[in-house]
Each structure stands twice: as structure tokens, then as C-alpha cells.
What does this fold into?
Amino acid sequence: MKIGLNLLHCQPGIGGVWQYIDRLLKAIAGYDQQNEYWAFVTRHGECLVPRQENFRRVRIDSIGTSRAARVFYENVFLDRWVRKLGLDCLHWFSNTMGLRSSVPGVISIYDLLAYHHPEDYSAAFRAYFRIMYPLGARRAAVVLPMSEATAADVHEILGVPKSRMVVVRTPLNEAFRPAPLESVWEFKKKYALPELFWLYVAHYGRHKNHGGLFRAYSEVKARHPGTWPLVLCGQKNGAEAVISRTLRDLGIEQNVLWLPRLADEEMPLLYSGATVLVFPSLFEGGGMPVMEAMVCGCPAVVSDIPALRECAEDAALQFPAGDDKALGNAMQTMAGDSNLRERYRAAGLSRAATFRPGPVAATLLDVYERAVRGAGQCS
It folds into this structure.
């Protein structure tokens, strides 16, 4: 097969989606050296394409970083490349697909946050997703939600039958495993990290609920002044002033450390060095940091939302989402019981095989074959 990969929207600012795509392409490259892949990229996303003989690139620099220019190109010019290269199907990685497609299309859908919190998006984008998300989902040969939770949303909100969906979870390579103690010690020394600490890995945003975490942490600290410091990893997204004011008002500015951007290879060291991951998010498409923490042997406290229940199952301590008091109590429970932490650590490690690349890549290759077999269904 000749498979197209539309990566034109990819740039580092897309956050967790970037990591998902990067890991998925690496999983495919490790599993499939036979089929031919053509990736449509800009200079920003070119580095995502595996340096492997059966992966080729078509670099489109004219669209820059403009979403409008990218959408126009996808709907007017991209299909010309598809026909010219003789592709058998095209994988769209941006939640929707173009209006014109001469080959079967499959779509990765990460979440439907825009439907749950439309107030976080511009009027132009709201108009776009209200039209293009349902249209793309109806026209795709196969829809690929990244979790069962997202699949349920796609079914309920976009009306896609479950028979036309295949869940493709985040693959985690073998680098995500408990790191050697000496390496963890060197990492902690480099970033001046304490011996014991809470960890939250998330870019700042309303649904990530940093405010709830800060309030819960301040209450825990008030009851137990010796509680571990709180370490955060992720972009502040222009909220530096809000964050500083909140920490100051709560009296915890000296207890909170926000790490600089880490290299990908440092993330397993961070998870391995953390005492407990705390993940109070109000909405997730897949919960990638929770998976990463578990396979690195870091026990987790997570909000009880569909995507996190799915990825963690009984391998994490859960609390009602949005309940600051319940979050503080869960943190206090985990901090006070080393046997409980060890139990959740072992449970998380036992789920590691669920997230490894081979099964995920095999599933995706089956999807491509299914799409090509049903080529007559796409127009």
C-alpha cells in the first residue's frame, strides 16, 4: 500500500497531540518496513517523519503557521498530490478531513473539547468545527479516536456508529520504564529537585485545573506543613501573571517549582524521580501523562473522568473531578501510606504492556487495509 499522512497542522505548539503523533509514527516505522508512506509536512513538522527508507516527505512551506492557509490548501490542493503520487488512502491527523478526497480517508480524533468548552475558542474556530468535524467524521472510511472515552463522545456528539471507529491509543516506547537510580539522582541534581515531590505534567489551561490543584495543595500544606513540594512540567501559555498571583495569594509560592521545557528523553527520569503524580484535569482525550507515569513506576492520584478511568483502571487512586477537598484528601491519603503508594506503583507497572508500540501499530495497519478494501465508500 501507499499511505498518505497529512501532518500539515503539526507544529510544537499543539502540545500532547504532537507527542501522540510522534510516538504513533515511530511505532509504525518499527512495525512496518514494507508499505510506502508519504508524509505531507511543513518545516515545523518535518522532524516527526521517521528517517526510514519507506517514509517519504512532501514539504509544503507556502502555508506557514496559518490555520486558514492550511485548511485552504488541504481543501484545494492536497488531493492533487494524492492523485499524483497514486496513494491508496490518506490519514488525517487533525480531527477532520478535507472536502475533496479521491482516496479513502481515516481521521484521528483526540478529543471533542471544543464541544464541551466552546467558550475557550474563537468564533471563527467554533464555526469551523461545527461544520467540519461532523462532515469529516461522516465521510471518513474509519474514525480513529485515541480512547474509548473519545469514541463515546464521537458517537454521541457526531453520530458516528461504533462499527466505523477503531480506538488507537498512545504507544509508549521502551524508553518509558523505571529509570536507574543513579540517572534519577543526576536528573534531580540538574534541576534542583527535592528527594520527595508531587508532580503534575500539563500545559496550563482551564480544563487542566491548575487552580484546583493549587487550592487543594495549600489546604494540605496548612494541615501538614512538611508536605512534599509541588513540581509542575508544561507550558504556562501566557498565564504567568495569573499563576504567580494565585501562588502568592495562597502562600505556596515557595513550595511550587515549575520546570523549564524538558527534552523528550528526560521525561522518564522525571516520572521515575517523582514520588506521586497528581492529575486533577477536568477533561482529557487520552490521559497520556498518567500512562507515562504508571509505566515508569510512579503512583498516581487522578480525577475520576472517563479517559483517566479508562487508562488507569484500578491502578491509580481516584477522586471526584473538580472537588478540591476530595483532591486534598486523596493527596493526604497517598502521602501518609507508603504501602498504598507501592501497591499503586506495582499496579501501574503491570499495565505497561497495554501501552507498548507493537499492538498499536498492528491495529493501525489493519485500519489502513480496511480503508483501502472499502475504497468505493469514499468520494
About this structure: The chain has a mean pLDDT of 91.
